[in-house]
Amino acid sequence: MQLCVPYVLGNAASSGHATPETVATQRCLGPFLTVHQMGYNGTMTLIVAIPTAEGLVLASDTQYTSGEVRSKGRKIYALNDHCAWAGAGELALIQRVHEQLEGIPTQHGLTELRDSLATIIQQSVKALLQVDVLTEFVQGDPASLLALHPGDFIFAEFTHAIPRLLHVAANGTPEWIEGLFASGNGAHFAYALLQKYQTLSLTMAQASLLAYKVIDEAIQVGAYGIDEPIDVWQITRKGLRPLSPEAVLVLAQVADMLRQGEIELLQGLDFKLPRSRAPRS
Question: 200 in a domain, yes or no?
Fold first, then answer.
């Protein structure tokens, strides 16, 4: 499919931010057109959610990137007294969803709100598509339309001693998540780190440490456009509680101890591999 759209050049393509100096005149592009080349201005985010028998932990980085400019801000919000949510993807979409969620009845749980939440996200995407000049270039191509305003949302609730995670994609499809969850830039890296903990029963303190450690290591080793400080929320029968900077500092210190312990464990292993057979000529 050939598309004629403004083509974002140079560093602006990698940052997802177009400026007058980096947008050329219309240029016909082939089937390898990327979202960044179409001027997508997204939010680099990593969200981790970990359910436990005592509640849930929801954590994220706090860096917002707009072109060459970085700023700090929270990415986790309260839906009601027992539910928090976070979104990864385009900032404009997350802002519209946030505005609509402010009118949601606070007395209902995720089971009752599931379809309403999905509808809000779906309608927010449609509203952005209606005002987006690029929409006309990808009419009739659902995948390209959704790629214009990507988003991924997670809602975490703890009621009646039951942890619930509701995931809603930008197309408005809701699904219940069983087990650990990660979304955003670096999600594949996060899942690789989380995989070995899938079957463990963790305390809230342990889950908070794990969520912090996963995001911290993604920040350290990956070029995902995410950064500290790390925001960690606990959701229990007592309600929502974002951890204080002092508590997050404790998590950072214990995470360093855990990493050092892994290094010492590896160095203390004494084993030999069987000799390999010489390759046949």
Answer: yes
